[in-house]
Amino acid sequence: MLARTCLRSARSVAPVRNVASKTASRSASTSSSSEGAASSFTMTVAGSAATAVAVGSIAWYFHLFGQEAYAMTPAEEGLHPTSYPWEHLKWNKTFDHQALRRGFQVYREVCASCHSLNRVAWHALVGATHTVDEAKTMAEEHEYDTEPNDEGEIEKRAGKLSDPLPSPYKNDEAARAANSGALPPDLSLIVKARHGGCDYLFDLLTGYPEEPPAGAAVPAGLNFNPYFPGTGIAMARQLYDGLVEYEDGTPATASQMAKDVVEFLNWSAEPEMDERKKMGMKVVVVSTVLFALSVWVKRYKWSPIKTRKIVYNPPVKH
Amino acid sequence: MAGLASTIYNSLIRKNTVFLTTIFASAFVFELGFDSISNRVWDSFNQGRQWKDIRHKYVQAEEDEE
């Protein structure tokens, strides 16, 4: 079918080409040159129109659906976070585990009263921020439900390393009720769950102005924060200088605490990062060496082919 | 030099079974060496940042009890 169509179109195009190239045409020919020009126009009309429609419809489609839609005002978008030179985000750097330990302290003493961290179990802290004994002691300070006993009663027991960090509220509804309708999100994966990651979180925590700027509308019960999309956030400013007392003597300024807790939350979202980066370094080293080797081996194997000479000896005429 | 190469060839590569053993053994040895070197490089990139660098500050109490 397709072949036949092609043949037919080739046949119909042929006389046009003859005329266009002004090859000598015999007077006996059925087409005079002026007729030929006219027919050349009519013959390309369909193709040109189809092309125009194709281009036009694609352009229209991209105009409608291809561009990013900015339906929000800048205030609804939120201020874009500053990009900070996070040491732990460099390709060859691990988390600073001293900072993680401080960040956990901030989480535990400040954020944990509203935010859960339920993807992190106590044992995950072991060998990352705390020793086994420290983690066990902290776990035991909290009560957990047991499995139902023979009477179907659920009792309480002390926490174990395998338990997740405790949530401050029984369920999301209780959390909303306690925070005038706003749910404090679980922080385990928050660094991955927000555009801007660490930068956004740091700016959010430290970006509360003393007073909302003139003209800004802050609904009752909300706080002004330019970095939060919409600028009205249900969480009030949490970090003030000297709020916690670091055991390692680091001055607990608001920005220091924000930096530490953000790094800790990055760890909780990517606890495998240290190992992953180390493995990545090894993979890159080994595969670049193997690549170089393979290039040399290829040259070696091809050298007889590349250097051969093909000689043509014409047959001798007798 | 040629003598050394032919010794290596004859003793490690010539017989297929021996060659296979050579490959496995050298992969094992290479992995050990490569890992320990790259771990050392990694630790020098990250001096003082990893848990093992700060662990001693927090395990003291535990060791005293024992």
Main sheet properties of chain B: none
Share of residues in strands of chain B: under 5%
CATH hierarchy: architecture of the domain at 75-120 and 164-274 in chain A: Orthogonal Bundle
Uncertain runs of chain B are: none
Number of helices of chain B: 3
Portion in helices of chain B? over 70%
InterPro entries (chain B): QCR9, QCR9_sf
Pfam families (chain B): UCR_UQCRX_QCR9
Protein name (chain B): Complex III subunit 9
Membrane topology (chain B): Single-pass membrane protein
Q: How would you describe this protein?
A:
The complex is a heterodimer of chains A (318) and B (66). Chain A has a domain at 75-120 and 164-274: Cytochrome c-like domain (Cytochrome Bc1 Complex, Chain D, domain 2). Chain A contains eleven helices and four strands, in the order H-H-H-H-H-H-E-E-H-H-H-E-E-H-H. Chain A has helices spanning 2-20, 33-66, 74-77, 97-109, 122-125, 132-140, 172-178, 190-193, 197-206, 254-269, 273-307; strands at 143-145, 156-158, 223-224, 232-233. In chain A, the strands form two sheets. A two-stranded antiparallel ribbon of chain A has the order 1-2. In chain A, strands 3-4 form a two-stranded antiparallel ribbon. In chain A, helix 4 (97-109) packs across helix 10 (254-269). Chain A is extended, with a radius of gyration of 36 Å. Chain B has a domain at 23-66. Chain B has three helices and no strands. Chain B has helices spanning 2-13, 16-45, 51-65. Chain A binds chain B through residues 92-98, 101, 127-131, 133-134, 248, 274, 278, 281-282, 285-286, and chain B through 34-35, 38-39, 41-42, 45-46, 48-51, 53-55, 57-59, 61-62. Chain A: It comes from Xylona heveae (strain CBS 132557 / TC161). Chain A: Keywords: Electron transport, Heme, Iron, Membrane, Metal-binding, Mitochondrion, Mitochondrion inner membrane, Respiratory chain, Translocase, Transmembrane, Transmembrane helix, Transport.
